[in-house]
Design brief:
The protein has helices at residues 14-29, 33-72. With 73 residues, the protein is mainly alpha-helical. It has one domain. The chain is elongated and about 60 Å long.
Length: 73
């Protein structure tokens, strides 16, 4: 089990950084506006999903802390 400190910054892995760089180059080299629009829409959808996951995770962590607190007292 990996335990991370709250103070530890969130960072991308090296593999994620390389993938992002590769995709950035593909986008930079693309001259087809329809392809760029499609990429933008997919990135928007992905961002919405990541935001929903982060919010869900935060709510579940808060619920777990509240349960743990109630059990102590």
């Amino acid at each position: 089990m990996i335990i991370m400190s709250i103070q530890e910054p969130i960072q991308s892995s090296l593999q994620q950084k390389f993938q992002a760089e590769r995709l950035a180059r593909i986008i930079q080299d693309c001259e087809d506006i329809e392809t760029l629009k499609a990429i933008a829409i997919e990135l928007l959808k992905l961002n919405q999903k990541k935001t929903a996951i982060a919010e869900w995770t935060t709510r579940r962590a808060l619920e777990a802390e509240q349960i743990q607190f109630k059990e102590k007292f």
